[in-house]
Every structure is written in structure tokens, then in C-alpha cells.
Write a structure and sequence with these properties.
Elements lengths: L5 H24 L6 H14 L3 E2 L11 E5 L18 E10 L2 E10 L5 H20 L6 H14 L3 E2 L4 E4 L6 E6 L14 E10 L5 E3 L6 E3 L5 E11 L2 E4 L4
Antiparallel strand pairs: 1-3, 2-3, 3-4, 5-8, 6-7, 6-8, 8-11, 9-10, 11-12
Length: 247
């Protein structure tokens, strides 16, 4: 696990803000009738035009620039010919490298009018991430952060995904430590000055269990229920915790 200096956090701040701007742009482009591949092409051009490099493309063989996951797709959706429709919830996960540092952030958005259940899932997932950010302060433990996510989601009658979570981030997209979506308060490593984390909440409307599409990447809810994904990068310092992917 690598703790970052103030200068290095400054570099991650730049990369994180750029990723946040890309995510905002992609969310605005996510309209009924366009394909998920259209979104990927848009993101590829945006990344290139801003002097950055894609973090996802060819990562362990991933074939696209962003992940787009719709409805029962949890994370890691590969963009393709599928069209976005009114009533969908669309998870968009973006990652890029700028000046050698990684920015990574995600959000699930509503396409037009969505069901009350879907709206509640989005609101609860958003709140879950915000509670995790509040818990991610110097001196707390990793279990405090994970439990904050879990508690908000489960108190609403939903379930967090067990097999995936957040991670450390820096010059590599995935660094130690792994940050599960569930945990026990007061357990795990203590959060130290200079730790930078990509906190991710993945919340399912139904069961916690997941499966995969034959493509080997796209994660699905086991029961076909809706899923939402939100992610922010945070820097933990003695001055407080800063969200690096919030514009």
C-alpha cells in the first residue's frame, strides 16, 4: 500500500477532476436511442482531445474505453449495439490517465421516467457512497467505511454486492487496499494520511449474488433485479478528506 505525498495528491486531483468532467459529459450523452457503443466512441474522442489516455482499454483484455452497465448489469458492461431506452438506469464507469496518474469515477443515471423502485435504488446508493466518504477519515478503519456503505443499503431493504468493491488508486488504477461494500466497524487497516481510495458502492434491488455474461466481463444480478453503481476517489489527509472526483 502506497501513501501519497501532497504533491502526488495534487496530481491525482487533476486526473480525478478530468475523470469527473468526462463522466459528466458521458452522462449528458446517455439519451434514448443511442447505443452503448456510441457512448464509448464519444468517450474515446473526449479522452484523446483532453490529452489523456484511457485506463480501461486493453486492461486485462477489456475491449472498450468505458464501462456501460444497464438495469440488471452491475458493473463492467462492454459497450456494444444495445440501445439505451426510456426507463433504463445506466451505470457509466470511466477511467483515464493524465500525466501518469489515474482518475476513476462512476455514476448510475436515470433515462427519462423510471420506476419508483429504481429511483429509490439510485437515491439509496448515492447516500451509501456519501456515508462511506464521511466515514473515510484519518484514524478510522477500513471496516468503518465498508460498513457505512452496507448499513445504508441494507436498511433500505437492498443488498450490496459481495464480490466486488473499491480500491486504492494512484499511478496504477487498482492498488491496495481492496475496499469491500460490506464490513464490520472497528476492523481492518487504519486509514492514514496520504491514502487515496476509489470508493465504490454496488447495490442490488434483489439478492446480493451475481453472475457473468458469456463475454467474461459483464456482471449481472443473479435474480435479474436492478443494480446501481456509484464511485468517487477520495484523498485522506490530516487536513480532512477530499473528494477528488467532484466538480
Amino acid at each position: 500500500m502506497e501513501l501519497k505525498s501532497e504533491k502526488e495528491i495534487g496530481s491525482l486531483r487533476v486526473a480525478g477532476r478530468l475523470a469527473a468532467e468526462l463522466l459528466d459529459a458521458c452522462c449528458r450523452e446517455a439519451k434514448p436511442g443511442i447505443t452503448t457503443s456510441d457512448l464509448d466512441v464519444f468517450a474515446a474522442e473526449w479522452i484523446k482531445s483532453h490529452g489523456a489516455k484511457p485506463a480501461f482499454l486493453n486492461y486485462r483484455g477489456f475491449p472498450a474505453h468505458i464501462c456501460v452497465s444497464i438495469n440488471e448489469e452491475v458493473v463492467h458492461g462492454i459497450p456494444g449495439s444495445k440501445k439505451i431506452r426510456v426507463g433504463d438506469i445506466v451505470g457509466i464507469d470511466v477511467g483515464l490517465f493524465y500525466d501518469g496518474w489515474c482518475g476513476d469515477t462512476a455514476r448510475t443515471v436515470a433515462i427519462g421516467q423510471i420506476s419508483a423502485d429504481a429511483q429509490k435504488l439510485l437515491e439509496v446508493s448515492r447516500q451509501s457512497l456519501e456515508q462511506a466518504i464521511q466515514a473515510a477519515t484519518m484514524g478510522n478503519r477500513l471496516g468503518d467505511v465498508s460498513n457505512a456503505m452496507q448499513s445504508v443499503v441494507e436498511s433500505a431493504g437492498f443488498n450490496v454486492v459481495r464480490h466486488y468493491g473499491g480500491h486504492g488508486i494512484g499511478r496504477q488504477m487498482h492498488e491496495d487496499p481492496h475496499v469491500p461494500c460490506l464490513g464490520t466497524p472497528g476492523t481492518g487497516m487504519r486509514l492514514k494520511d496520504g491514502l487515496v481510495l476509489a470508493l465504490e458502492v454496488m447495490a442490488n434491488r434483489g439478492v446480493a449474488e451475481v453472475s457473468h455474461k458469456p463475454d467474461g466481463w459483464t456482471v449481472l444480478t443473479e435474480d435479474g433485479s436492478l443494480s446501481a453503481h456509484f464511485e468517487h476517489m477520495v484523498a485522506i489527509t490530516s487536513r480532512g478528506t477530499e473528494v477528488l472526483t467532484r466538480i
